[in-house]
Amino acid sequence: MSSQLGQPVSLPLVRGSDTGGERADAARNRQLLLAAAKTLIDDQGAAAVTMDAVAREAGVGKGTVFRRFGSRTGLMMALLDHSEHALQHDYLSGPEPLGPGAPPLDRLIAYGRARLALTIAHLDILLEAGSDDPDRLNHPAWRMSTLHVQYLLSELGYPGGLDTVAIAIQAPLEAIAVRHVIEVIGLTAEQIADDWERMVRLLAAGLR
């Protein structure tokens, strides 16, 4: 299983977010704009990410944002891709407890909290991009995450097949589930993370 956890996979990108062959100054511009968008999300939520707001935050003209990403959706998808690559890097080769070296339970809990944080940060674009897509569990990023969860479950000594339990463990971290729990049930992000961790710890305790 661990041999399958190689380099981070790429998310399908929309027009304007491809970095292949871009000049160094264009690459710097792209990183500047993505950092500005992330700052807006961290400070004000995803709804605050407009092309105008990102341009102001980055100190560039709005035309620069449109030329780089094409549209708000293009910008958000590029930001999601950037964040997904960062998360994959962290759980494949980053520091403990998310990365290699920590006990598998600690890594699984760290992964769940990091995945939830990413889901909440990009909730609107994740919902727009495919919560109703029947093939979403076959998305490259989701497949990579599932392989990682399966690997950690095997390290914990989970008996039998891992496919169903890996999907079940990740289900509360999906965008559609997170939206329901926050908007309908009224839990906070920290409460969701704590409930998810409790579930995983109880599962791991049953394996001893």
What's a quick, concise take on this entry?
The protein has 208 residues and is mainly α. The chain has helices spanning 24-44, 51-58, 62-69, 72-93, 104-121, 123-130, 140-156, 163-170, 175-185, 189-205.
Structural account:
The chain is an all-alpha fold. The protein folds into two domains: 66 residues, Arc Repressor Mutant, subunit A, CATH 1.10.10.60; 115 residues, no CATH class. The N terminus is likely disordered.
Give the secondary structure arrangement, pairings included.
Layout: H1 24-44, H2 51-58, H3 62-69, H4 72-93, H5 104-121, H6 123-130, H7 140-156, H8 163-170, H9 175-185, H10 189-205
Number of domains: 2
| Biggest sheet overview | none
Per DSSP E runs of 2 or more residues, the count of β-strands stands at 0
Low-confidence stretches: 1-19
Helix segment tally: 10
In angstroms, what is the radius of gyration? 18 Å
End-to-end CA span: 22 Å
Shape: elongated
Helix and strand content put the structural class at mainly alpha
Helix fraction bin: 55-70%
Q: Could you state the order of secondary-structure elements as H and E?
A: HHHHHHHHHH
